[in-house]
Write a structure and sequence with these properties.
The chain is of the alpha+beta class. It is built from 18 helices and 16 strands. This is Bacterial alpha-L-rhamnosidase.
């Protein structure tokens, strides 16, 4: 099934959702003591019928009949009486099929048996983010997956379940688009009335929007938004299959996406505080010094978007000593010197480039002190703000070599250590999207925007993130390499003979083979980038009280969209005339001051 508009996909499911009213309460049979230990689920549920049958086993083995019946809408309710059913019949072998639910989702399966099944039956269920994953076996003990095979790490995706006789079972809690079901008992028959996916998602309105003259970019914007929405579960996760964890650095592209699409959401401070409270100083968040830097940067950006000074004040007791810790890691020459037990890390593809990692950490620390100075001003910590700015000046005097690292060069450009145009020309733009990464690709795009190279950035989005769509992606991935994708089969098909199995056979570091997550929030960077740079919406003061509108359409004929603020939605529309000039229309709440760049030919 080819990619459909993700917003339309979600809207099409709305008729199945029942909303709990704000006034709803637990029944009075629960005591006050019991209520204190009960938490209300913030996640909505939708039931999704399969979109197509991808595969059934060879009929010389087990037999599957009437599989197309499973594509019907369904109710989840068994009933007594004659009915057409899908049958799995094990004779010489074992019957099984693979279902495609059309979009990557987070959740499980609801399986309803028919009256023909008066006894329980055992089935093997395999969830897959790709068809290939549903065809795989768990490697080793099933926990690490570092051998490159499938894994039950973080979430069960391969297991045996017992179906009730003449009833319904809901089972599973993972990220998947495809599901394989096999009847595992010899000489047995299973009659299925229905199989539906259970989508668990925060039911959020898309307050932000983006539409332009290039449909590929429109789909990329929506895909990034949906990728992050799926990861907004109990906390803000990095991945819904593997890496269902709160990683501070990985969160930055996610909170930028949330702020540009959904506006304020409590899951962000909840997740920030979770890691803070589990990281007593002088420890580094997630064991990575850079991730404590990202915590400061996120606090700044979240404050700028949402203006929650009350929340920022709650961070003061942790923020100030953390800044002292950072300052203790800078030598007399202004060079970062974090050689303790922390993991020196930017992202995985750059991790073996020690010179590049050092240059990136130097830049990230400069960015941290710059943003911390703004926070300290807001907290009336003027002395600390002054010290932070002095550290920025001191550290900018030391200019390390990016060592060919696009990650490091991008951060150095954004930190103002080297001119953005030079970083772009010498390193970032070399080879197009070659050596991009799904996480740090966001900062590469931001550095190219700072260099004024918007058309190259747009082309990188089209080729790199668009390359995932070309392979059947409906969410963006933990890792993607354009060269590895050459001559690879799509993830939504059984890999044809002569084609590379991209999900199974590629990957490195912690995402080897099928362990790789195909829904990773850190890969959503193009969504906020397109809003900020093409729509040209830049927040200049806390709480969006001042917003600058400066569009950069590149080769686009028009772009329009919306942006959520604490006071309501800002709407913009940019249209390019035949002479190249841009006509801009803006609607904004009265509380927001809009500044505009002068009209110019782009």
């Amino acid at each position: 099934m080819r990619l459909l508009g993700i917003k339309n996909f979600l809207l099409s499911l709305s008729s199945f959702c029942f909303f709990l009213q704000a006034s709803a309460q637990l029944p009075p049979v629960f005591s006050a003591t019991q209520k204190e230990k009960i938490a209300k689920d913030e996640i909505s549920r939708y039931y999704i019928a399969p979109q197509r049958i991808v595969w059934t086993n060879d009929s010389t083995q087990g037999i599957v009949t009437n599989a197309q019946l499973l594509l019907q809408k369904g109710t989840g309710q068994p009933y007594f009486g004659a009915q057409a059913v899908c049958k799995f019949i094990n004779k010489k072998g074992y019957a099984g099929l693979v279902l495609d639910f059309g979009k990557q989702i987070h959740g499980g399966l609801q399986i309803t048996t028919s009256q023909s099944n008066r006894v329980t039956r055992k089935v093997r269920i395999r969830f897959g983010e790709s068809v290939s994953e549903t065809m795989s076996d768990v490697i080793g003990d099933g926990t690490t997956g570092l051998e490159g095979g499938a894994t039950n790490h973080h979430a069960m995706r391969d297991f045996i379940a017992t179906l009730p006789g003449y009833g319904t079972l809901e089972i599973g809690n993972s990220g998947f688009r495809f599901a394989r079901i096999d009847l595992v008992e010899a000489d047995s028959v299973l009659a299925l009335k229905e199989v539906r996916a259970v989508l668990k998602i925060r039911d959020l309105p898309y307050l932000g929007s983006f539409r332009c003259s290039d449909e590929r970019l429109n789909q990329i914007w929506l895909t990034g938004a949906y990728t992050v929405q799926l990861n907004m579960q109990d906390y803000l996760w990095d991945g819904i299959k593997r890496d269902r964890m709160v990683w501070l650095g990985d969160m930055h592209p996610e909170i930028m996406t949330i702020s540009n699409v959904f506006g304020y959401n409590d899951i962000v401070p909840k997740s920030l505080d979770f890691v803070r409270d589990h990281t007593p100083l002088p420890n580094w968040m997630n064991g990575i010094s850079a991730y404590s830097m990202w915590w400061v940067i996120i606090q700044h950006d979240w404050y700028m978007f949402h203006g929650r000074l009350d929340y920022l004040k709650q961070q003061k007791a942790y923020l100030l000593p953390l800044l002292d810790l950072f300052m203790s890691k800078v030598d007399a020459a202004g060079k970062e010197n974090i050689y303790d037990k922390s993991f020196r890390f930017l992202d995985w593809p750059s991790s073996e480039n020690k010179g590049g990692v050092h240059a990136g950490l130097q830049a990230l620390m400069v960015m941290t002190f710059e943003k911390a100075a703004v926070l300290c001003d807001a907290l009336n910590e003027t002395t600390k703000a002054k010290t932070c700015r002095e550290m920025v000046t001191k550290m900018k005097r030391y200019v390390p070599d990016a060592n060919g690292s696009k990650q490091a060069a991008s951060l150095m450009a954004l930190a103002g250590i080297i001119p953005a145009a030079k970083a772009n020309a010498d390193v970032i733009s070399v080879g197009g999207a070659k050596n991009f990464s799904t996480f740090f690709g966001y900062y590469m795009l931001q550095a190219q925007a700072k260099a004024g190279d918007y058309e190259t950035a747009l082309n990188n989005i089209r080729s790199y993130w668009g390359g995932m769509l070309d392979m059947g992606a409906t969410t963006f991935w933990e890792d993607f390499n354009l060269e590895e994708a050459a001559n690879a089969g799509r993830i939504d098909e059984v890999v044809p003979a002569g084609k590379k199995d991209f999900h199974r056979d590629c990957g490195a570091y912690c995402y080897i083979g099928l362990r790789r997550s195909l829904c990773h929030g850190w890969a959503s960077g193009p969504t906020p980038w397109l809003t900020e740079n093409v729509l040209g919406i830049k927040v200049l003061s806390p709480g969006c009280k001042v917003i600058k509108i400066e569009p950069h359409l590149g080769d686009l004929g028009f772009a329009e969209g919306s942006f959520p603020t604490p006071y309501g939605v800002v709407k913009v529309k940019h249209t390019k005339s035949a002479d190249g000039k841009i006509k801009t229309e803006v609607q904004a709440p009265k509380e927001i001051k809009i500044t505009r760049a002068e009209e110019k030919t782009l």
